[in-house]
Structure formats: structure tokens, C-alpha cells
From TrEMBL:
Entry keyword set: ATP-binding, Kinase, Nucleotide-binding, Nucleus, Serine/threonine-protein kinase, Transferase
Protein name: Casein kinase II subunit alpha
Boundaries of every Protein kinase domain copy: 32-317
Reactions mediated catalytically: L-seryl-[protein] + ATP = O-phospho-L-seryl-[protein] + ADP + H(+); L-threonyl-[protein] + ATP = O-phospho-L-threonyl-[protein] + ADP + H(+)
GO CC annotation terms, alphabetical: cytosol; nucleolus; protein kinase CK2 complex
Length: 344
């Protein structure tokens, strides 16, 4: 079981996590206008939209025909988590008169594309945005939810406003002890080892591996740190970095029967020191604290990874926490009381 928040959903109760019996009150789509397409994928098309009632920009996620259960799950998760720190806000759910097209209306974020962003991030930027992501995941995990698809494309960063939002909850799921979960989740470059070896009793730590992959991309100035051509090659990229000794121990610890016909996956690989990835271009970002933080996230054994809350407390973020405390203090001095989200 997860070493944190294992009983979160049991405590919150069935009405919190039971999306099968969740009733959705759909709004008509009349008040929203589509302005332009922002992107799309296997399950949805995403557009910038306009709320004609208040002239606010919004994002309209038009869901492709999928199982009603999946639609209910995404909306239930978003309804539960909206208002949490750095979680994208669900504003409305709409359905056309035919009942065929379902859409989610969410807050708009002036996002900077990852390809443009990662090469220019400063150490201060990295600390700020990873800490904001951890704040989101700390809240999400404490409320019994695994995101299961943390990656740059699902993290909207408004660089001018220093704002981050975690989006796309289509693969999110409520965590329960001793439940086998589907392993076909996540995106290849950010898939945790447990998914790649078919271990189904994973938990929130799945998301923390993905955070580690993103952090490595930021610090080492690589668009994607582990970049496999398929799932087998993805695992090979990980083995060549973290080594096979700890991998074999991981399989043995959790009694995972991993079979493969790929010869390279059966070869012994030594663990590489993180210093191997330090170059003249990224040396200023690869501090001792940064390398220690990375090392404590990218672990085969999911129980060894930092939890979101532990990650927030890592010395790498000392200055970020001090800034947050300072801002909170200023708010108290100016207004006589502190905003509930002032440190978020």
C-alpha cells in the first residue's frame, strides 16, 4: 500500500470517490463560443473559448466519444479538486441538444510551450515551478487521487504571471489499497518503472517519478530526459542510467515476474552518477541540492521516492519556502489577516 494517504478515500467516504453513481447536471453550450483550436489527442479536442456572459476567455475541452464511466470519472475528480492549489479550475460542463457531444469548460492559462520554455529556465524558475507542481500534487494525493499523466504538456505555465496549473485529469483515478490498476496510463517518456514492468498495485508515487523526469529535463536542459522509442526502449534508457543492480532488487522485493525477449534488457548496466549529465551549459543548475533531490525521486522502488509533501520540504526549496513565508507575513501586516492560499 501507499506509505501516505492510503486511507484517504475511506476517510472521505463513498460519495467522494464513487463516480459510477455520480449525477452530472449538464449546461447548454449557448453561452460559449470557440475562438481557436489549441490542441488535441486520443480522447479530446481542446479550444480557446469565450464566455459571452462575462467576456472571459476559457478553455473548452470537447470529449471524444468514450465510455460514460470515463467522462464521469474526470468530472468527479475535477469537481472534487477544483479550488485546490494550482489545480486547473472546472468552470462548467456542457452538452449539446443531441446529447452526443460533451465538453468541459475550464480556466484559461496563457501557457508557454515546453520546447520554448525548458531551455531558458533559471534556477529560480525551476525551484518556483517545481514547488508549485508539488503543492498541487500534495493536495491531490492527500485527497485520494493519482493524476497518472504528469508531463510538460499537462502543466500550463504562464511565465509572465509566474502561474502554474496542473491540467488534463482524464487518466486520474482514486487510490484504494490492494486494487489492481491499469498499466496503460501515462506518457512514455514519463512512465514510471512499475508501469513498464506491469506492476498493477501502484500508488501516488507514480506521479513523483514523472516529477523527477520533468525536473531532470529542466536541470540538464533536455526536452525529455528518458526518451525511448517504445516502452521496452524506455525501460532500457532507465536501466542504462539507474543501473540493473537496484532494478533486479526491485523486481525481487515486489515479486514481479518480468519477462522480455529484448537482449539489451538482460545485460548488466552500471548505475551512472548524475554528474555524467552535467555540461558547461547546465552546470549552473546542477547544484548539490538539485542532484540530491533528483536522486530521491528517480528510484525504482516506488516506496523509496519522496512523497509530494516530503519533496516540498527538501532543502532545494528552502529559498522558495522563505519567500512564501515572507509573502504571507506581508499580507498579515497589510491587512491584519493572512489569505488561506497566500503561501501556495
Amino acid at each position: 500500500m501507499s506509505r501516505v494517504h492510503a486511507d484517504a478515500n475511506a476517510i472521505l467516504g463513498k460519495s467522494w470517490y464513487d463516480y459510477d453513481n455520480f449525477r452530472i447536471d449538464w449546461s447548454p453550450p449557448d453561452r460559449y463560443e470557440i475562438i481557436r483550436r489549441l490542441g488535441g489527442g486520443k480522447y479530446s479536442e481542446v479550444f480557446e473559448g469565450l464566455d459571452t456572459v462575462n467576456s472571459d476567455r476559457c478553455v473548452i475541452k470537447v470529449l471524444k466519444p468514450v465510455a460514460a464511466k470515463k467522462i464521469k470519472r474526470e468530472i468527479k475528480v475535477l469537481r472534487n479538486l477544483t479550488g485546490g492549489p494550482n489545480v486547473i479550475a472546472l468552470l462548467d460542463v456542457v452538452r449539446d441538444t443531441s446529447g452526443r457531444y460533451h465538453s468541459l469548460v475550464m480556466e484559461y492559462v496563457e501557457n508557454v510551450d515546453w520546447k520554448r520554455l525548458f531551455p531558458v529556465l533559471t534556477e529560480g524558475d525551476i525551484k518556483h515551478y517545481i514547488f508549485q507542481l508539488l503543492c498541487a500534487l500534495s493536495h491531490v494525493h492527500a485527497h485520494g487521487v493519482m493524476h497518472r499523466d504528469v508531463k510538460p504538456a499537462n502543466i500550463m505555465i504562464d511565465y509572465q504571471r509566474r502561474k502554474l496549473r496542473l491540467i488534463d485529469w482524464g487518466l486520474a483515478e482514486f487510490y484504494h489499497v490492494n486494487v489492481d490498476y491499469h498499466i496503460r496510463v501515462g506518457s512514455r517518456y514519463y512512465k514510471a518503472p512499475e508501469l513498464l514492468v506491469g506492476y498493477k498495485r501502484y500508488d501516488y508515487s507514480l506521479d513523483m517519478w514523472s516529477v523527477g523526469c520533468m525536473f531532470a529535463s529542466m536541470v540538464f536542459r533536455k526536452e525529455h530526459f528518458f526518451r525511448g522509442s517504445d516502452n521496452d526502449d524506455q525501460l532500457l534508457k532507465i536501466l542504462k542510467t539507474l543501473g540493473t543492480e537496484k532494478f533486479d532488487l526491485y523486481l525481487k522485493t515486489y515479486n514481479i515476474h518480468f519477462e522480455t525477449e529484448i537482449d539489451n534488457l538482460l545485460v548488466n548496466h552500471p548505475k551512472q552518477p548524475w554528474s555524467r549529465f552535467i555540461t558547461a551549459e547546465n552546470r549552473h543548475l546542477a547544484s548539490t541540492d538539485a542532484m540530491d533531490f533528483l536522486d530521491k525521486l528517480l528510484r525504482y522502488d516506488h516506496a523509496e521516492r519522496l512523497t509530494a509533501q516530503e519533496a516540498e520540504a527538501h532543502p532545494f526549496f528552502n529559498t522558495v519556502r522563505l519567500e512564501a513565508i515572507s509573502i504571507k507575513g506581508d499580507l498579515v501586516n497589510d491587512s491584519g489577516f493572512a489569505s488561506e492560499n497566500s503561501a501556495a
